[in-house]
Prior knowledge:
One of its GO terms (molecular function) is adenylyltransferase activity. The protein has helices at residues 43-50, 94-102, 139-154, 179-187, 200-203, and strands spanning 8-12, 26-31, 62-71, 74-80, 85-87, 90-92, 108-116, 122-129, 160-164, 192-193, 195-198, 210-211.
Amino acid sequence: CGRPAGVEVRIVDPGTGRALEDGRVGEIWVRGESVSPGYWGSPRDSADIFDGRIKDGEGGYLRTGDLGALVDGRLCVTGRIKDVIVVAGRNLYPQDLERTVREVSALFGSGTAFGVPGEREHVVVVQELRGRSRYGVDLAELTAGVQRRLSEQYDVAPSGVLLVRPGTVRRTTSGKLERAAMRRMFLNGELTALHQWVDPEVERLVRRVTPRKGPR
C-alpha cells in the first residue's frame, strides 16, 4: 500500500461505474497529467480504456484493470479483474483463496487458484509441496483439507486440487503469479501432479491431467 502521487485515484465498481467508498475493493481508475491520453491511432480502444466515466458523470479516467481499495488515503492493490472468480454471483479473489490454502499445512509453499469456465465457474487450486520426501504425508488427506478449508471459509467447494512439485507454479520475472498461464497449462493437461482430485465435469474439460508418484 502507498499514497498515490501526482494522479487522482478513484475506486469504481467496474460493472456499474459507481464510485465506491473507502475500504471497498473495486477497479482502480486514475487521471492526471502524467496519464497517457490513449493508444496511438486507435481512438475506439482508447475511449474504452482511457475515458472511463463514473456514474455521476465525471470522465477522463484510465481504467487500469487492477483491483484495489483506498484506506485512509493509501492505495492497496489486490489483484487483476481478469483473475476474479465468479461463483454463483459472488466474486472470489484468488489471493484470498491462495492465502487460506497455504494455512492448511506447513508443507505448502507457493500456490495459485483460478477459475475454469464450464456450465458454471469452477475453482481449481494448484499447490506446491515443500520437501515432501522428508515427511510421511497423506496427500489425499492434505487434498481433503484444502477442500474443507475453502468450503468452511468461503462456502465454495473447489472442483480441482492438484498438489505439485516445487517450481511448478509459474511467476513473472517480477514475482507475480501467472494465473492465466497456470489455467492454460491445467486445461492443456500440462501439469504433472503428485496427487490430485478433479471433479468429473472439470476433468472432461482437460485434455490430460497425469498424476504420478513423487520421489521416495
